Amino acid sequence: MTETEALVALNMLPKIGPVRVRRLVEACGSAAGVLRAGSGKLRQVEGIGAETAAILGKWEDYADVAGELERVREGGYGILTAEDEAWPEGLREMHDPPLLLYVWGKVEARDRSAIGVVGSRRATSYGLQQAKRFSFQLAHAGVTVLSGLARGIDTAAHEGAVAAGGRTIAVIGSGFGHLYPPENKALAERIASGHGAVVSEFPIGTEPDKQTFPQRNRIVSGWSQGILVVEAPAWSGALITANNAADQGRSVYAIPGPIDRASSAGCNRLIQNGARLVMEASEILDDMNFLLPAPVLGTLAAAPEMSEEERVVWDALEDGETQIDAVIGKTGLAAAVVAAQLMRMELKRLVRQLPGRVYVRVGG
Length: 364
Hints:
This protein is α/β, with parallel strands linked by helices. Helix content is 48%, strand content 13%. The protein folds into 3 domains: 1-63, 5' to 3' exonuclease, C-terminal subdomain (DNA polymerase, domain 1, Orthogonal Bundle), CATH 1.10.150.20; 102-299, Rossmann fold (3-Layer(aba) Sandwich); 308-361, Arc Repressor Mutant, subunit A, CATH 1.10.10. It is built from 19 helices and 12 strands. Strands 1-2-6-5-4-3-7-8-9 form a 9-stranded mixed sheet, with helices on both faces.
């Protein structure tokens, strides 16, 4: 049995978890060694009682490794472990890292430079717009956008990264056989087909429940170098992710919202408690520069060049502060095209957005 196969087996066993598995591996020398060890040796390990030792002794009754690996092959998935080069560095530092990750798509070494973007499932139009805008800009700069594929802010974050032609990782709280929410299957397919990966620590047949989502959240915070909370009420699970990130020594950013709206109470409270208030993705990029690898820094520092469409939009701003509807009218371009070009130009520090969706040149 290979180490990967042994990890698949251990990951399928009930009532054990990554912390105790790590202790077992340290005591037995390898994951395969854990499955071969006798009850006496297993019970010498901290936290391993008679029940757990009995489960390990009969592990084949719980884990159909051959069947699981066949499901992996049939689905076109992969399995990533800590021995792989692409394993996120942040997960190595966690107290309870996942034993492995099932991967639909491809995780690359550059995905270590990641910002988690999280927020409410019941997002307002304001929250959805900001999640897409920030994620578009981060992904365009070469930063991987990490989120949980949930409804609301998570969905908007992945969509923004895909629209930018960048990278995004969706960490889900279920097995691939029960992808949740089901309406995001098409989005998951777009991500896996060239824009990043969908990943899960759960065996393929695992259904989502109240326990799997908090487990998912710790991976989002552990993997990311910083967490951006876009919009969240006071009771949002996104705040748990943000608190995990702070405990793990990650930077926490929050977008402010109206003080009289419950949908923004969590973000505003985070800011009161020390999260950095951000209004532009460039503020996150500036703050994270020292953490990003050379290829990404090169992208950020490159001399700005304008595409043909960007030049048309630039020319439409020659009279100074211009509302976006006026830019659309002057250029004759579709509204979505103008919005995308303005985002790119903001990232290049060529234009700046003012209140009321008004834009003005700042360079060139």
